[in-house]
Amino acid sequence: MISRVPVLLSSSSVFPEPTAAAFELAATTGYDGLEVMVWTDRVSQDAGALQGLSDHYDMPVLSVHAPCLLVTQRVWSPDPWERLNRAAQLAETLGAPTVVVHPPFSWQRDYAKNFAAGLAKVQARHPDLAFAIENMFPVKMAGRWFVPYTPGWDPTETGFDAYTLDLSHCAASRINALGMADKMGAGLKHVHLGDGTGEGRDEHLVPGRGNQPCAELLRSLSARGFKGSVALEVSTRKAASRAVREADLRESLEFARKHLAEPAGDRSAPRAIAL
Questions:
Q1: What are the CB-based long-range contacts (under 8 Å, 24+) for 156-161?
Q2: N or C: which end of the chain has fewer CB within 10 A?
């Protein structure tokens, strides 16, 4: 049984390799478990296939990322509520305690209008799951900032019971992750660990290669009473080889374990950068 904060490998971190490769790499490099990103890979949608991989590699699935991306809008169903319900069922089947959810896109008007109430109904059907709403980021188009989410990219402005803190998204929105963690408070249930440079785009760098306070955030989790898991969500799509990808994943895991084990340090880092 894992006594420390579990460090998971998001299956998105091995893209363009498939979901099955994430189990193999997580086992090879020593992660505590997996976060399954449900996307167009059929294996990521199939509870039986995922359970088989989990058993084969002795690698538990400890979180499920619902299909909320632009490229997954028709996975399982074009209905976002059906996708969320299916993600919850998948998590329960696999024994994963956390479902990661994005705020609604601005064009999903009915879904956005009823999101809080609908989420409460889904939660009532699955009381043992944490539906952790993820902080997102504005995007820049034609020299202007645009927020593609309703009511916004920061879920704490609406208020939910559970949150996923994504550090790469903090960098893309040019805010400090420690400040966002403070806003999430006791609702902070899950962390997506990745880094960014604040250039206004989602980079998902190996932690320590950007300017987010990744180490400080990890050190602060114990004092925050954090009981969730940390999932490495880094981009290795440009890795020149499997060996380079594996090296990046090992470096990320070592970074996470090192700083999770250290006491909290200085909290004097700047909390926000104006857009």
A1: 156/180, 156/183, 156/184, 156/187, 158/103, 158/116, 160/116, 160/119, 160/131, 160/133, 160/187, 161/123, 161/130, 161/131, 161/187
A2: N
Q: Token digits for 34?
A: 């997996």
Between 158 and 272, the higher pLDDT residue: 158
Instruction: Please give the helix or strand (H or E) that residue 215 lies within, else none.
Output: helix 214-220
H/E run at residue 165: strand 163-166
Residue 251 sits at the vertex; the CA angle it makes with 250 and 255, to the nearest 5 degrees, is 115
CA 215 – CA 1 distance, rounded (Å): 25
pLDDT tens column, 171-196 = 999 999 999 999 999 999 999 999 99
Tokens of 21: 């490769």
pTM score over 0.90: yes
Q: Which amino acid is at 174?
A: R
